[in-house]
Structure formats: structure tokens, C-alpha cells
Design a protein that fits this description.
The complex is a heterodimer of chains A (about 110) and B (about 110). With about 110 residues, chain A is mainly β. Helix content of chain A is about 0%, strand content about 55%. In chain A, the strands form 2 sheets. In chain A, strands 2, 4, 5, 9, 10 and 11 form a 6-stranded mixed beta sheet that branches. In chain A, strands 1-3-8-7-6 form a 5-stranded antiparallel beta sheet, with no helix packed on it. Chain B is globular. In chain B, a hairpin with a 6-residue loop joins strand 4 and strand 5. The chains are: A mainly beta (about 110), B mainly beta (about 110). Chains A and B meet through strand 5 and strand 9 of A and strand 10 of B.
Chain lengths: ~110, ~110
């Protein structure tokens, strides 16, 4: 069974610091990796996706992928209180499936 | 990013009645849409995969006769909760994507069954 593991947190960082969120996955056939942000009471919002090994940067967000280690991470630079949310890691099911497997999420709190 | 809408955003119904939730892709066509359920402080749970023009695929433990899914067009999927009971009260969210893997979520529908 495909699994996506995340530290549930909460992860607390001071405002302006770098927040580092980690995710491991079990299926070596997975090709696409996603990070979603979910505010309390709201639906998830796609913030980053990465397909290739290495880093992908978008504004204050950097996704890092290491397929050999089956590890994907999200760095948030200059963290803001508005970044406080639950971050969900998602991995595709491979074999042409559109279905994603989600981790349980890491709750991030940015302290002003 | 792509836009997915849901209607209604919230609904209250009496036990034993049925509720229909709509999911629309506004600026792209989606042959596949997904329906999730999320209970408070819990993670997303995939309920079913909605396929345009064919039967939905349900996850293990999800009653297909209770949660009816119809994907009648490339931009619309509906989830009908039949004979709703208080334990069906939850946050129902659909997702769809314009590409092979990117999935965008609708804003969700909060269902309360009294």
C-alpha cells in the first residue's frame, strides 16, 4: 500500500525564519510530488509541484526532491504569520493514474 | 492555477433526506475528478474517482449506493449523499486538474445532517 509520511507537528518557527517541512513516500514508481497548504476550515490550495530531482523555487517557497531517498521537502523562507497552516504532501500513484496519495499533513505555526 | 468550484458551500439537511453537491471545472475540461471527505482535525480521505462517461470508482469502505456520483460532462461531477445521517456530516471536497497530475481543489461543501 502506498504511503506518504509527514511529521504531524506542530512545527513552530519565529517570524522571518526558514520553515522546513519533510515528507517521505513508499512508492518508487511515483513521478510527481505536490505540496498543498490548508488553512483551518478551508480546502487545500496547491502551492508547489516538482517532478525532477533537485530544487524548484517559487518566490519564498522551495521544493526539494530526492527520488533515491524517496524524500521531498518544502522550505519556506522569511516565514510570515500568514503561512501558519497545515501543509499536505501528495504523491501521484504512478502508472498514468491521476490519483494522489496524501500525507496526514504538518501543522506549521509562525510566531510573530 | 486552474479553478474548481463547488456548490453549495454549506448545507444543513434532516436525517433521511438526500443532498446533491456539484463540482465544476471552470476553465478546463476534466475527464477525471476526485471526491474527498475530511472530518475535523483529520486528513483528507479519498472517497471515489469520478470518470466522465463511465462509472465512478469507489475506495474500499465507501458505499456506492449511498454516495452516488455522476460525471455527466467534462466540466461537471455531482455527489449525492442519499438518506443522509448525522455521521455523514463532514467537509466534502472535490478536486480536478487540467493536466496529467496537477489537482486543484474546490472550496469544499460543509454538510451538517440534523
Amino acid at each position: 500500500q502506498k504511503e506518504v509520511e509527514q511529521n504531524s507537528g506542530p512545527l513552530s518557527v519565529p517570524e522571518g525564519a526558514i520553515a522546513s517541512l519533510n515528507c517521505t513516500y513508499s512508492d518508487r514508481g511515483s513521478q510527481s510530488f505536490f505540496w498543498y497548504r490548508q488553512y483551518s476550515g478551508k480546502s487545500p490550495e496547491l502551492i508547489m509541484f516538482i517532478y525532477s530531482n533537485g530544487d524548484k523555487e517559487d518566490g519564498r517557497f522551495t521544493a526539494q526532491l530526492n527520488k533515491a531517498s524517496q524524500y521531498v521537502s518544502l522550505l519556506i523562507r522569511d516565514s510570515q504569520p500568514s503561512d501558519s497552516a497545515t501543509y499536505l504532501c501528495a504523491v501521484d500513484s504512478g502508472a498514468g493514474s491521476y490519483q494522489l496519495t496524501f500525507g496526514k499533513g504538518t501543522k506549521l505555526s509562525v510566531i510573530p | 492555477g486552474a479553478v474548481v468550484s463547488q456548490h453549495p458551500s454549506w448545507v444543513i439537511c434532516k436525517s433521511g433526506t438526500s443532498v446533491k453537491i456539484e463540482c465544476r471545472s471552470l476553465d478546463f475540461q476534466a475527464t477525471t475528478m476526485f471526491w474527498y471527505r475530511q472530518f475535523p482535525k483529520q486528513s483528507l480521505m479519498l472517497m471515489a474517482t469520478s470518470n466522465e462517461g463511465s462509472k465512478a470508482t469507489y475506495e474500499q469502505g465507501v458505499e456506492k449506493d449511498k454516495f452516488l456520483i455522476n460525471h455527466a460532462s467534462l466540466t461537471l461531477s455531482t455527489l449525492t449523499v442519499t438518506s443522509a445521517h448525522p455521521e455523514d456530516s463532514s467537509f466534502y471536497i472535490c478536486s480536478a486538474g487540467p493536466g496529467a497530475y496537477e489537482q486543484y481543489f474546490g472550496p469544499g461543501t460543509r454538510l451538517t445532517v440534523t
